[in-house]
Amino acid sequence: MAIANKNIIFVAGLGGIGLDTSREIVKSGPKNLVILDRIDNPAAIAELKAINPKVTVTFYPYDVTVSVAESTKLLKVIFDKLKTVDLLINGAGILDDYQIERTIAVNFAGTVNTTTAIMAFWDKRKGGPGGVIANICSVTGFNAIYQVPVYSASKAAALSFTNSLAKLAPITGVTAYSINPGITKTTLVHKFNSWLDVEPRVAELLLEHPTQTTLQCAQNFVKAIEANKNGAIWKLDLGRLDAIEWTKHWDSGI
Amino acid sequence: MAIANKNIIFVAGLGGIGLDTSREIVKSGPKNLVILDRIDNPAAIAELKAINPKVTVTFYPYDVTVSVAESTKLLKVIFDKLKTVDLLINGAGILDDYQIERTIAVNFAGTVNTTTAIMAFWDKRKGGPGGVIANICSVTGFNAIYQVPVYSASKAAALSFTNSLAKLAPITGVTAYSINPGITKTTLVHKFNSWLDVEPRVAELLLEHPTQTTLQCAQNFVKAIEANKNGAIWKLDLGRLDAIEWTKHWDSGI
User: Fold this and answer.
1) Domain-embedded: residue A2
2) What is the pTM of this model?
3) What is the pLDDT of residues A199-236, one digit of tens each?
């Protein structure tokens, strides 16, 4: 059981996919669910507490674009309180190809920085106990929505980074897998900007094709957490959960 | 002929792979080779001029981490002088996983920003003539050197972005392909830092395996430029040039 009685940090746990996933997580009875998000939502936090009163749900404001040092400071507060953390979920993401710098900072650098920060507490080379990282990437990291090339590329980066983390597990003691949702009916995809307006109707066109609900995605997310498989590349699309086999085009040999 | 009598901008054309590629390019007789690089190297520029005196070789200092607006300003100076530009090569890259922010800024954001800037001159929706973009990505964008997860991820991002650009060609008139070198004997790979020192000997270990010379890489680079194939994912490894077929794990449907 990767959730029951565990301590979990969920970055962007109040977001589009995040909130339904937080609801499913608390149902599985973790000891602590620590939600880090940019903006507090006391009603949502209260609701999560009400779903399962045995779970301690806490909230800290957190912007993933801060420095590694800032992230480390916040994590220290959390580790000091909980003593151990078992799972970190990195879920911060924006979808707006007008905002090149911010897309890269949130979707890619944010994931790298929060991960880098938690290594100070988890890395077994420093006497840490190890841990598990679940990074929310995207199917657009496999194959782009080419009308949002910056978003898609930022997700390809997050995915590649996660695959590397998994291979580093023997060294660091920290395992990792990626959660790659397909088009999910969130406010994120309701309307968004394409790069240089190459396709002003991109959101509309996407939503003409089959999608999944945030609840379907959240339920499969929890299944992936319970599977707890280092290196897994989970595709959560159209209400299904499938593991992807990454193609080897090259091998560093080391 | 994609080089003879053409006007070419080469970002990082004095770099590890860049300089030998610039040498091969001038041999093929472009009209203009405009090299943008962070640091001038008058001896190298003089050498390029001497290889083929019919080619006009010019240099402008350029740091790819400047804003799109700054990049646009420099490109305006170049377009005002040359009137037309046929090919943009984006080759700026650093390999140092101690420097997370800079790796992302140079290898990923730099490629996106220079590309975004040139669209103002090339985009056919604005009456531009179109153009060709060759982005130097890396085989680590296919499959990481997991000891440098940030570098590898930044290259996965540049590759994904390039694949998207190619699909946008019918809209923008700008075609694109990626140049993905394997391990090439440059100063870049002589010694470099792994992420959190996960493998201090990463450079040494890599170089125990077969590599290629910068000349081999440069000669295949010129072949790829001459092939001029929109959407091609070129692998330049061990002295070979091969086109990669990207795996479809998902399709946006639009």
Assistant:
1) no
2) 0.98
3) 999 999 999 999 999 999 999 999 999 999 999 999 99
Q: Reply yes or no on whether the pLDDT at A188 is more than 90.
A: no
The per-residue pLDDT for range B75-110, each reduced to its tens digit, is: 999 999 999 999 999 999 999 999 999 999 999 999
Task: Tell me which residue range forms the domain holding B170.
Answer: 7-241
Residue B251 included in any domain: no
Provide the total of helices (H) and of strands (E) in chain B, helices listed first: 9, 8
Structural domains counted in chain A: 1
Closest Cα in chain A, distance from residue B99 (Å):
11
Are the CB atoms for B24 and B99 separated by under 8 Å? no
Strand pairing class (B7-11; B32-37): parallel
- Residue A156, chain B, CB below 8 Å: the answer is yes
pLDDT < 70 regions, chain B: none
- In this structure, is residue A251 part of a structural domain? no
Element (H, E) at A132: strand A131-136
- B247 CB near a chain A CB, below 8 Å? yes
Q: Is A62 a catalytic residue?
A: no
CATH of the domain at B191: 3.40.50.720
The answer as to whether B93 is a domain residue is yes
Nearest CA to CA, how far is B140 from chain A (Å)? 8
Q: How far is residue B43 CA from its own chain's centroid?
A: 22
